[in-house]
């Protein structure tokens, strides 16, 4: 039997990180009369985390993914140039922040030293009006990181600070989950920032860039989600705002190793299987209806689908859950469409260009990535051709966008930012236009589905799932995956997996006290 996985007691450099201990139990499922059999539906980060968490405790797991490979929204797929050299495409860059403790614990299963990741020196931001910001060299510990940022900022000055409505702004310094949602979820992020008189230039440059990382405009995003995000990455953590990225394309660095690791744990990995519904079984509690035959029956099911996939499976599973729960799942919505366009160019971007540049103030352009500055496959293209691999992102597009017009606008805007690209010829182009990310709209937190469901043998996982911890994006996916495994393991009396988060409170006692004054409405649980 495999030993218990035990992450380090110091998951990062921040000594204030908080441990979320699992309930005690038996070391594995070997004491049970019959080994539990679990179906995990969805092979993204959440599904892989759930499968790993269960299999490490001796549970028999079948992982079913509708795509051709693992990865979900962090997947990639192979292509080839005319000379036969690889041309891998993905859905865009993902930042592996150093406060993603549970995601990194998952990655360490296949790479204990995280050699797959490469640090990014900076993530500069640039507004169309020419103002720019950088996070390079900031102190790591809050609130000194914020103070240093303000002192050197082009878009946020000390004069702006004196004009802000500090009682409203102080809410950012006293964030705790879920209390911040009880206080701010009914307000949109744009209104929240305007109410505190946050300077317009800084609002557009910094907060808009971060809010759009949720693929939503600030006026369509919950203010609580924005405050939580600011806490995770800036005010609540000493890990810093810079991040790492895989040095190789995702299929090579992540999903190939994870497929092998899952197989070594005894997990049956089946791709190209679209699960349609969960039905009662004959010998075990559940059986699955799917696009291809799934002969086994299962004692439990983990639904780690994307937003639309979860709605569809639940809608087709007539006997699953309660009426209220099913209505809550039906209310989950997707964010607006987004576009990722990758260009293999015949000439390079300037060598001093940042690997990633966040942009604001443009009609479509939200990010420019120069992949050959950090990714081995793209760097090989640069060495072989003298060119560059450049990726452009457009988030929160209008419904049913016209691909040709958006791409043309993206290129024009990118060339205005990086003029050296004006004469470049694209030798290969790939586009990814999707609408499958969750929307965290104002007022949606209270009815968002949680890991637990009315059926103790059916659990949910994914970044769309509500979890009352300060996590977001890929870290929310990994965290809910482990929590889904823990929920099932606890039902069988088996030890779960300890988790970690950034502190679930403001870091400064003085600032927290200021936020709790009567003039500053506060989170009830902060």
Low-confidence stretches: 518-526
Strand content: 15-25%
Shape: globular
Gyration radius, to the nearest Å?
23 Å
Mind describing the biggest β-sheet?
7 strands, mixed
SS content category: alpha+beta
Summarize the structure.
This protein is α+β, with helices and mostly antiparallel strands and 526 residues long.
Structural features, described:
There is one protein chain. The protein has 526 residues and is an alpha+beta fold. It folds into three domains: 18-72 and 249-333 and 441-501, 3-Layer(bba) Sandwich (FAD/NAD(P)-binding domain); 125-242, no CATH class; 337-434, Alpha-Beta Complex (Polyamine Oxidase, Chain A, domain 2), CATH 3.90.660.50. Helix content is 30%, strand content 17%. The chain contains 16 helices and 22 strands. It has helices at residues 45-55, 101-107, 144-152, 158-163, 166-169, 179-184, 189-195, 200-211, 223-235, 250-264, 307-316, 323-331, 376-385, 403-417, 473-491, 509-515, and strands spanning 18-20, 37-41, 60-65, 76-77, 89-90, 96-97, 117-119, 125-127, 132-133, 243-246, 268-271, 275-280, 286-290, 297-298, 300-303, 338-345, 356-360, 367-370, 388-394, 426-434, 458-460, 499-501. The strands form six sheets. The protein has a seven-stranded mixed beta sheet. A hairpin with a 6-residue loop joins strand 13 and strand 14 (297-298). Helix 2 crosses helix 15.
């Amino acid at each position: 039997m495999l030993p218990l996985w035990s992450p380090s007691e110091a998951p990062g450099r921040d000594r204030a990180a908080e441990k979320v201990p699992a309930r005690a139990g038996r070391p594995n499922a070997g004491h049970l009369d019959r080994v539990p059999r679990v179906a995990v539906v969805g092979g993204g980060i959440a599904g892989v985390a759930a499968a790993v968490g269960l299999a490490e405790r001796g549970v028999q797991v079948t992982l079913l993914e509708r795509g051709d490979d693992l990865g979900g929204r962090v997947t990639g797929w192979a292509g080839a140039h005319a000379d036969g050299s690889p041309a891998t495409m993905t859905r865009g860059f993902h930042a592996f922040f150093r406060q993603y403790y549970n995601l990194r614990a998952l990655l360490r299963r296949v790479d204990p030293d995280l050699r797959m990741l490469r640090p990014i020196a900076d993530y500069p931001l640039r507004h169309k009006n020419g103002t720019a910001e950088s996070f390079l060299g900031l102190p790591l510990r809050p609130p000194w990181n914020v103070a240093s940022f303000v002192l050197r900022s082009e878009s946020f000055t000390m004069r702006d600070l004196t004009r802000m409505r500090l009682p409203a702004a102080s809410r950012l310094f006293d964030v705790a989950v879920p209390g911040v949602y009880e206080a701010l979820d009914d307000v949109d992020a744009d209104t929240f920032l305007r109410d505190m008189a946050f300077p317009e230039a800084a609002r557009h440059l910094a907060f808009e860039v971060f809010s759009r990382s949720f693929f939503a405009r600030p006026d369509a995003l919950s203010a609580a989600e924005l405050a939580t995000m600011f806490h995770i990455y800036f005010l609540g953590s000493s890990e810093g705002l810079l991040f790492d990225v895989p040095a190789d394309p995702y299929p090579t660095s992540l999903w190939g190793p994870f497929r092998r690791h899952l197989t070594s744990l005894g997990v049956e990995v089946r791709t190209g299987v679209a699960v349609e519904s969960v039905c009662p079984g004959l010998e075990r509690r559940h059986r699955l209806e799917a696009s291809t035959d799934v002969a086994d029956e299962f004692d439990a099911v983990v639904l780690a689908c994307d937003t639309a996939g979860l709605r569809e499976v639940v809608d087709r599973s007539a006997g699953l859950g309660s009426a209220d729960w099913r209505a809550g799942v039906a209310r989950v919505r997707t964010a607006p469409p987004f576009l990722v366009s990758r260009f293999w160019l015949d000439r390079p971007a300037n060598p001093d260009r940042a690997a990633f540049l966040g942009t604001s103030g443009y009609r479509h352009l939200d990010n420019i990535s120069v992949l050959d500055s950090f990714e081995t496959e793209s760097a090989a293209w640069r060495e072989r051709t003298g060119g560059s691999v450049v990726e452009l992102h457009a988030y929160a597009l209008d419904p049913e966008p016209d691909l040709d017009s958006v791409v043309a606008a993206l290129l024009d805007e990118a060339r205005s930012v990086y003029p050296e690209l004006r004469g470049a010829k694209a030798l290969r182009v790939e586009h990814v236009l999707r609408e499958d990310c969750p929307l965290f709209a104002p007022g949606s937190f209270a009815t968002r589905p949680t890991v637990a469901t009315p059926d103790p043998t059916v659990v949910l996982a994914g970044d769309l799932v509500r979890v009352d911890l300060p996590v977001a994006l890929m870290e929310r996916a990994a965290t809910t995956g482990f929590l889904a495994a823990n929920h099932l393991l606890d039902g069988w009396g088996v030890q779960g997996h300890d988790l970690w988060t950034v502190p679930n409170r403001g870091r400064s006692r003085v600032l927290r006290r200021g936020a709790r004054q009567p003039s500053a409405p506060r989170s009830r649980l902060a």
